[in-house]
């Protein structure tokens, strides 16, 4: 009979032995363009499905439309008399297979879809966000199946589309249609600092302001006509007041906020004072489009704004303050909610899926300060939490290269992440007593 501890060592040793296969899988994924926009993931989803089928797993390819294909697979053990189905844990290993656009190819120092390993780094668009992490989840599931590890619960794989633009045809579509019902915990292979998974995030609140003016001859401004661009400038300045809103975080999250502030300044590499983002509404004026000609008083201006909502405030409160600030500035605007929209969300550090992964990562990395932290960005984690599924994020990355030129991820972190997914799966789901030896 193989004990739990023996299974853990068998699996970890096998990841070491086959690590080149893991890197090859990640490289293959990177070499398949899946930029979003435009967001068509047909080819990469087909590759993921083919990899899992070749590993002997059953696969569902779910077409949500517009080229947004989502791939699901499940390893489910037979029910035993000692363990009723409704008492079993169900873990989801998840990731997205779309990536942000490459941008200006000339500003990369290597081919954007290289998918190669050079000087200890896996290189190419998606290396950090998040095809290396996705490869780790796929590789882990295939390995556990090949070794016939008798998991005591259910393991699901979800490789989804439409994450990078916050679209509705990826994780949201999969969860809304009940394809992951019954899940008790999830790990998303999003990029994270090496020993600090993310267990919560600020809310996301994007909106568009459409401001109307009265056109006229430009030579008569400001005496004739009403310039929408000038009104937009007043609106932009007024919206900076959102930073002054004061959140009231629940008591159970305040310690996590404080530790995340320390982490942001000591480990993330940003400038001193960056930790203030956890307790304020941030305001980014993303785009401004107004006017028709230099010599015409602008009759319309459209401003798109990205605000992030700290724990202790809601999107409704922020939007109410937007309206108040605009009214105070004397600006009338049509407000349309767009893009990423979510409330602040988190999973507490003592949740079983969080505690299991953090403990496993601490052992594997040898870092006693391993802990979950908050992030200021948004991801599919918000969707899992909105469906009542505790979730955290951990994946290999060189964080400074995410969404930038020359994206890459350390090979050592790619292997560490795969081991973390494997050990988390074994410990979270448990292993049934089984007379078979490992194959």
Automatic annotation (TrEMBL):
InterPro entries: ArgE/DapE (IPR010182), Bact_exopeptidase_dim_dom (IPR036264), Peptidase_M20 (IPR002933), Peptidase_M20_dimer (IPR011650), Peptidase_M20A (IPR050072). Keywords: Cobalt, Hydrolase, Metal-binding, Zinc. The keyword Hydrolase applies. Residues 199-332 form the Peptidase M20 dimerisation domain. Gene3D superfamilies: 3.30.70.360, Zn peptidases. Pfam families: M20_dimer, Peptidase_M20. Its cofactor is Zn(2+); Co(2+). GO terms for molecular function: hydrolase activity; metal ion binding. Belongs to the peptidase M20A family. This is Succinyl-diaminopimelate desuccinylase. It comes from Ruania alba. The lineage of its organism: Bacteria, Bacillati, Actinomycetota, Actinomycetes, Micrococcales.
């Amino acid at each position: 009979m193989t004990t739990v501890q023996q299974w853990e060592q068998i699996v970890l040793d096998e990841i070491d032995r086959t690590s080149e296969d893991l890197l090859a899988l990640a490289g293959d994924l990177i070499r398949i363009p899946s930029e979003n926009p435009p967001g068509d993931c047909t080819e990469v989803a087909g590759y993921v499905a083919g990899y899992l089928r070749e590993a002997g797993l059953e696969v569902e390819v779910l077409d949500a439309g517009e080229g947004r294909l989502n791939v699901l697979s499940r390893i489910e053990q037979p029910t035993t008399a000692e363990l009723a189905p409704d008492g079993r844990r169900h873990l989801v290993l998840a990731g997205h297979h779309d990536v942000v656009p490459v941008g200006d190819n000339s500003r990369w120092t290597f081919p954007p879809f290289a998918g190669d390993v050079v000087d200890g780094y896996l290189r190419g668009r998606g290396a950090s966000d998040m095809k290396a992490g996705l490869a780790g989840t796929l590789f882990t599931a295939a390995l556990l199946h090949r070794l016939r590890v008798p998991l005591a619960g259910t393991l699901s794989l979800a490789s989804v589309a439409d994450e990078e633009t916050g679209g509705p045809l990826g994780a949201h579509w999969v969860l809304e249609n009940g394809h992951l019902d019954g899940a008790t915990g999830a790990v998303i292979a999003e990029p994270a600092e090496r020993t600090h998974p993310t267990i919560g995030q600020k809310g996301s609140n994007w909106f568009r302001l459409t401001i109307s003016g009265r056109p006229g001859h430009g030579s008569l401004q400001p005496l004739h006509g009403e310039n929408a661009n000038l009104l937009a400038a007043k609106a932009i300045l007024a919206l900076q007041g959102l930073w002054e809103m004061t959140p009231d975080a629940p008591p159970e999250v305040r310690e996590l906020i404080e530790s995340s502030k320390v982490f942001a300044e000591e480990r993330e590499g940003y400038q001193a004072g960056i930790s203030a983002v956890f307790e304020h509404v941030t305001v980014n004026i993303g785009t401004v489009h107004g006017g028709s000609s230099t010599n015409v008083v602008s009759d319309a201006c459209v401003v798109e704004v990205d605000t992030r909502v700290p724990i202790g405030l809601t999107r409704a409160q922020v939007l109410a303050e937007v309206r108040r600030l605009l009214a105070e500035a004397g600006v009338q605007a049509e407000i349309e909610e767009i893009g990423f929209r979510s409330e602040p969300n988190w999973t507490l550090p003592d949740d079983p899926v969080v505690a299991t992964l953090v403990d496993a990562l601490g052992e594997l990395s040898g870092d006693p300060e391993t802990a979950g932290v908050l992030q200021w960005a948004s991801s599919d984690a918000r969707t899992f939490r909105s469906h009542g599924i505790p979730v955290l994020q951990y994946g290999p990355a060189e964080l400074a290269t995410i969404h930038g030129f020359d994206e890459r991820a350390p090979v050592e972190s790619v292997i560490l992440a795969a081991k973390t997914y494997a050990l988390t799966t074994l410990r979270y789901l448990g292993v049934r007593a089984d007379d078979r030896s490992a194959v």
